[in-house]
Structures are given as structure tokens and as C-alpha cells.
Amino acid sequence: MEGILHVSPKELNLLLTLNCGQCFRWRSRVKPIAGDHLVDVKPFSSSQSKTWFGIIRKMVFELTQYPEQEMIKWRLLNDGCNFNSKKRRKLSTDDVNEVLYDYFQLKVPLEKYYQIWSKADSNFAEKAIKFTGIRMLRQDPVENLFSFICSSNNNIPRITTMVEAMCTTYGEQLMIDDEFGPVYEFPRIINLVENDVETALRKMNFGYRAKFIHGAAKTIVEMKPEKWLYDLRSREYGETHQELQRLPGVGAKVADCVCLMSLDKHEAIPVDTHVWKIALTTYLPHLKRTKSMTDRSYREIGDFFRKHFGSYAGWAHSILFAADLKRFQEAAVEPPKR
Predict the structure, then answer these.
(1) Got the DSSP string for 202-213?
(2) Which of 200, 205, 198 is closest to 158 using CA atoms?
(3) Using CA atoms, how far apart are residues 326 and 322, in angstroms rounded to an integer?
(4) d(CA 130, CA 127)
(5) Cβ atoms 136, 23 nearer than 8 A
(6) In this structure, are residues 41 and 66 in contact, taking their beta carbons and an 8 Å threshold?
(7) CB of 220 within 8 A of CB of 247?
(8) Under 8 Å between Cβ of 209 and 153
(9) Is 42 an active-site residue?
(10) Which long-range contacts (CB under 8 A, 24 or more apart) does 83-90 make?
């Protein structure tokens, strides 16, 4: 099954959005798409962004961006299954478009917010010229939480390896891809509570994170209502942030990542070393007096961004974060002319 999302690259840049460290299950294709009737249309200027392969829920996708036509072609690779259990029928192209629309949060008028943030902040305006179309994804909270428990003192390539190892070991196989081989969904929480999970993850070089993954899973299964994680979407940011930090391996930063990337808390500000550096050099130089980040300075940075950028401050902060990543210095592109 295949279809089209009509969206400007100023509203969604796949290369920057899928590769900026908020998710870990998207990979760029090496081979061309066989039988693609749009193959003669020039894809995005960077070779890394021609076609993306990834998983949303149980759905395995290829996504290809055509900026001059302001569209993204999608292909659902395992469309033989019935994903729409509520409606008890196979997905239609409209159903898939709805899934993608939700995942990329396309109801948020990103170009409008870029303009608002650029007027409010000259540093943002400078970055926004080259780093257009960076969106926050609306991920599954389970995948988002356990992926970011892996992120402690880690880097994006290694987190990606760990997440894939979890999926391969504890997730259900969805299909076999010609390029990437067996493809698995993200594990259900119940699959991470068995007694041997911590030992197995340690053997896969998860280190101390193995204990946190197992402990968080057990806490959720044994002490929380069935839909607890999903129900946090309807709670206030402050309450949600505190609730998440009651889980093993979840501190303020991981809690903010989950709040922002899967729980609809657009004002959440995850502060890592990149954001700490941005805050010190551009916005809050007085924090240079502290040798390292404290709980107080963490809160001060978050409060500053929220006041400075407004209700979608987490999105603005993530654009500045992406612009600071070395991996994007060559990938940044001028927005295509219409």
C-alpha cells in the first residue's frame, strides 16, 4: 500500500526530524525504490534523505521526500495485517495518512511558529534559515520511555544499537526486509519484566541501564494501571514530570524527553550537555559560575525557555539542539525556492 502526504519541507524535513536524536528506529535506504513511479523526481538534496525506513507502532514504512512537489511519498511494507482492531478491518490509505499525520503532528503550524520564534530571538532566527522543518514526533510512550532510559551517558549510534537489540530480543517479528533483514516491533512492557531480562541485557552491553529497564518495566506492570503511560497525556506537565521520575532510571532529563516526545507536553525542555552549552553561551551566561548543572540550574534553563518561546518552547529548544549537532553541519540546507 502506498500514498502521498502533501506537506512542505518547511513544515516537515525528514532528514532533520528523523535523524536528530528524538527517535532511534529510522534508517536511510541505500537501494532505490523498485517500481517507484516518482523515481524521476529529484529527492531532497542530501543523499541521506532519499528514502527512510522505519517502524510506527506495528507498521513498517518507507518515506521519501520530494520538496519541490511539497510532498512525501509513503509505502507501507507490511500491509497484509489488520492494524485497525477497533474498526475490525484492514487499513485504508486514509487510515495510514491519519497515522502519519498524528505521528508527525502535522496539525501544528510549524512555519508560523518559526516566524514567531525568529521575531522573538535573533539567535533562533539565524539557525532557522538552514534548519527548517524540524518537528517533534508524537511517539508511542512505551518505546519513547525505554529508548531514553538507554540514553543515559550515551550517544545516538549506541542508543540506536541498544534499542534495536531490545526489539530483536523481546519484540514480535513484523516482516523480513530485503536490505535490513528481520524487522521487529518495539517490545511490550510485559516482555521486559521476566527475571532474566536484566542479565540478558547486561550480556548485550547495556551496563547499568539493564537494571533500570527491568526495574521500570516491573514498576509499571506491578504498580500502575494498565494504560498509565498513555493516560499521562491528559495530565498537566508538572504532575507528569514528577510521576515519570518515580520510575527507576528516569531523572529530570529523561522525564522531559518523554513528556515532549510522546506525552503532548510541548513546553517540556530536556536539558543535556548541548542545551546546557547553548544556555551558557547565548542566554544565561551567569550560569557559567557553576561548574556543572544542578537541579536548580536545570529548572532555571527550562523556565527561561518556556518564558522566552511560549507554549511550544520544547519544539523551539529542539531546533536549537539540532543546529548544535555536528552531524547536521553539512546536512543543513537552505529551504527550497518555490
Answers:
(1) HHTT-TTHHHHH
(2) 205
(3) 9
(4) 6
(5) no
(6) yes
(7) yes
(8) no
(9) no
(10) 83/57, 83/58, 83/59
Number of CB atoms found within 10 A of residue 171's CB:
19
Q: Write down the catalytic residue from 253, 265, 288, 307.
A: 253
Q: Which residues of 242-274 are buried (b: 16+ CB within 10 A; e: fewer)?
A: ebbeebebbebbbbbbbbbbbbbbbbbbbbeeb
DSSP character string of 146-191: HHHHTTTT--HHHHHHHHHHHHHHHSPEEEEETTTEEEEPPPPGGG
DSSP letter, residue 312: T
Q: Is residue 107 exposed (0-12), middle (13-18) or buried (19+ Cβ within 10 Å)?
A: exposed
Contact 315, 116 (CB under 8 A): no
Sign of CA dihedral 236, 241, 247, 253: positive
Bridge partners of 65, per DSSP, are: 72
Q: What is the residue-level pLDDT of the chain in tens, covering all 338 positions?
A: 999 999 999 999 999 999 999 999 999 987 555 444 443 334 344 444 479 999 998 999 999 999 999 999 999 999 755 555 555 567 899 999 999 999 999 999 999 999 999 999 999 999 999 999 999 999 999 999 999 999 988 999 999 999 999 999 999 999 999 999 999 999 999 999 999 999 999 999 999 999 999 999 999 999 888 899 999 999 999 999 999 999 999 999 999 999 999 999 999 999 999 999 999 999 999 999 988 899 999 999 999 999 999 999 999 999 999 998 877 766 555 544 43
DSSP letter string, 229-260: HHHGGGS-HHHHHHHHTTSTT--HHHHHHHHH
CA 54/CA 308 separation, integer angstroms: 34
Q: Beta partners for 76?
A: 61
